[in-house]
Amino acid sequence: MGLADKLKNVRLEKFRFFKAKETIGVDLGSTSIKLIQLRGSPGRWSLARWAYLPLPNASPDVPGPERKTQATNLLRDYVFKQKKTAVKSAAFAVSGNSVIVRYVKFPKMSRDDLSKTIQFEAEPYIPFAIPEVNIDFHILGDVVEDGQKKMETILVAAKKEIIGSRLDVIRQAGLNPIVIDVDAFSLQNAYDVNRNPGSKETVLIVHIGASVTTMAIVETGVPKVVRDVFIAGNTLTKALQRNFQCDAKAAEEMKSRAVLLATPEEREKAVAEENKELLQMSTVMLPVVKDLLAEVQRSIDFYLSQGSDRQVARVLLSGGGCRLGNLVAYFNHELRLPVELFDPLARIEGAKAISPEMRPLFAVAVGLALRRDGDNL
Question: In CATH, what class is 196-342?
Answer without folding.
Answer: alpha beta
